[in-house]
Design brief:
alpha+beta; 8% strand; 70% helix; two-stranded antiparallel sheet; single chain; disordered C terminus; rod-shaped; Heat Shock Protein 90; 525 residues; five-stranded mixed sheet; disordered N terminus
Length: 525
């Protein structure tokens, strides 16, 4: 069955769904199988009925008719022998024959019941047998030895005539029963041949039905789905110009149309994405060039501003020393302001120069953070001694990065922890580390004045300060430099919420690659 849409489809056929086609196919198959099953059951029933007729009625009836004949012959032989000899022992066949006669007649009554011809034949046999027994057999058998010979001699002619009549009745009955059995056998053979043909036809029809079902499913369902799947896979492999065919039942066609619509949307989105990617690449290139220019400008500006500031500071200090005794107190204050401003500007420019160097000038190699931290603590020994700070740390790992920048990271974090200490207690700084997936997480915890929750993101912005210079000196660039250093090394830095006093700053750094990975990376480079 071709369920595809086409100009020759009947009206409405092309809109049939797979469920409707399957329902029609199942209903047709069920009706056909029901008809075939009925024919098979009828042929089996007919064969079974005719077999029962032959086996249970016709053959037993003929057999019992022959037994009846044998019983009557035995009776005639016994009566004739007793009539000739007068000896009672010759009546034994007669007595046994009477018993066999009754059994045979009783069985024949049951077997021929319902068949008028067979009942008539049996009635004729019974009538002739009764006449012969009444006139000859019973009188001779009941007489004494002497009388038996006389009665038998007197009735010898009647006995022969009457028993010949019995023989004729038995022959007619057996001929009729034999003919009925032959007819039943012929009917049984015909029924068996018909049964065989019916089941052969059923097998052929079922085979044709299975072929039709397979062909219909392949043509109407699996074929369109296979074509749809092949087209979808080609589209998935990047052949976005591959049109998705819409064939088969209505729901499969609708699915194909939906996939085709999705393909068209993907093509449109891909075109827009390509345009956006091209624009983004251009913007990224412009931004990279702009950042490089800004870093170069910051470096050059910071470097070039050093000389004028040194001159301003030097000549201002020289002016103060040479003409200090000739100027009033107000002039000395102005000169001090100028010197302080120049010094602070120089510190700010130095910090800005150092900030611009992060990520621009670097020497990546394995860095033992344990040694870097110890060197930083030694560099801060004066501040540690003056503040009475106590610094503890876990055993620190080795990472891949720039040793100088990572040293400045420790210096900024530890100096901040010492600088922003609580006035009523000495600083206590704890550096801990733990492994998380493919990163190391470092935490620097102190017991200082802490950072309010609303300022946890603001502290990483360059030149942002939470306190006045009089309260805490500095340029406000330390944590911004920490953020830039950590992010340059592929990590993140945050201010963690804490229970109690103090500040907790966490940052992550990637795990150092294994020797195999490092060698592989080096060989690729």
């Amino acid at each position: 069955m071709d369920v595809g849409r086409g100009p020759r489809d009947p009206v409405g056929i092309a809109r049939w769904t797979t469920r409707r086609w399957l329902s029609l196919g199942v209903a047709t198959s069920a009706v056909l199988l029901l008809v075939l099953g009925s024919l098979g059951a009828w042929s089996l029933g007919t064969t079974s009925r005719l077999t029962d007729e032959v086996v249970l009625y016709r053959s037993p009836a003929l057999i019992n008719a022959v037994r009846l004949e044998a019983a009557l012959v035995n009776q005639e032989t016994g009566v004739r022998g007793y009539g000739l000899t007068g000896r009672r022992d010759f009546l034994t066949p007669y007595t046994q024959g009477r018993t066999d006669e009754k059994t045979a007649l009783k069985t024949l009554d049951r077997l021929v019941s319902g068949s008028s011809d067979a009942e008539d034949d049996l009635q004729a046999v019974r009538s002739d047998v009764e006449t012969w027994q009444r006139q000859v057999a019973r009188p001779v058998a009941a007489a004494s030895s002497g009388d038996a010979v006389r009665i038998a001699s007197a009735r010898a002619g009647d006995g022969k005539r009457l028993f010949d009549s019995v023989r004729d009745s038995l022959s007619r009955q057996q001929d009729h029963l034999r003919a009925a059995r032959v007819r039943a056998g012929d009917d049984l053979d015909a029924a068996q041949r018909l049964r065989n043909w019916v089941f052969a036809a059923i097998a052929v029809v079922i085979a044709l039905l299975m072929c039709a079902i397979v062909y219909g499913l392949r043509r109407g369902v699996t074929g369109p789905l296979t074509r749809l799947g092949a087209a979808a896979r080609e589209v998935g492999r990047g052949q976005f110009d591959r049109k998705v065919p819409a064939t088969g039942p209505a729901d499969v066609q609708q699915l194909a149309q939906d996939v085709e619509s999705m393909r068209e949307r993907l093509v449109a989105e891909l075109a827009r994405s390509e345009e956006a990617r091209t624009l983004l690449d251009q913007q990224a290139e412009d931004l990279k060039r702009s950042n490089a220019e800004l870093e170069q400008f910051a470096y050059v500006a910071s470097h070039d501003l050093q000389e004028p500031l040194r001159k301003i500071s030097s000549f201002t200090q020289l002016l103060q020393r040479r003409y200090g005794d000739k100027l009033d107190e107000r002039a000395d204050q102005y000169i001090a302001f100028a010197v302080d401003g120049a010094n602070r500007m120089q510190v700010l420019i130095n910090d800005l120069l150092m900030f611009s160097r992060v990520g621009r000038v670097h020497d990546e190699r394995p860095v033992a953070l344990e040694d870097t931290l110890n060197s930083t603590v030694d560099a801060l020994s004066v501040a540690v001694e003056e503040s009475g700070a106590r610094i503890e740390h876990d055993e620190l790992p080795t990472v891949h990065g720039d040793a100088g920048q990572l040293g400045l990271l420790w210096q900024n974090l530890l100096s901040n922890a010492i600088k922003f200490r609580a006035p009523d207690r000495p600083p206590h700084i704890r550096v801990s580390v733990r492994e998380e997936a493919d990163m190391w997480r470092f935490t620097v915890r102190d017991n200082g004045i802490g950072i309010a929750p609303e300022f946890r993101d603001k502290v990483f912005v360059i030149f942002q300060r939470l306190h006045t210079r009089e309260a805490y000196p500095g340029t406000g660039i330390g944590l911004a430099m920490c953020k830039k250093t950590v992010e340059f090394h592929g990590g993140t830095i945050t201010v963690d919420p804490v229970d109690g006093d103090g500040t907790s700053i966490s940052f992550t750094l990637p795990l150092q690659p294994s020797a195999e990975a490092a060698d592989s990376e080096g060989s690729l480079r």
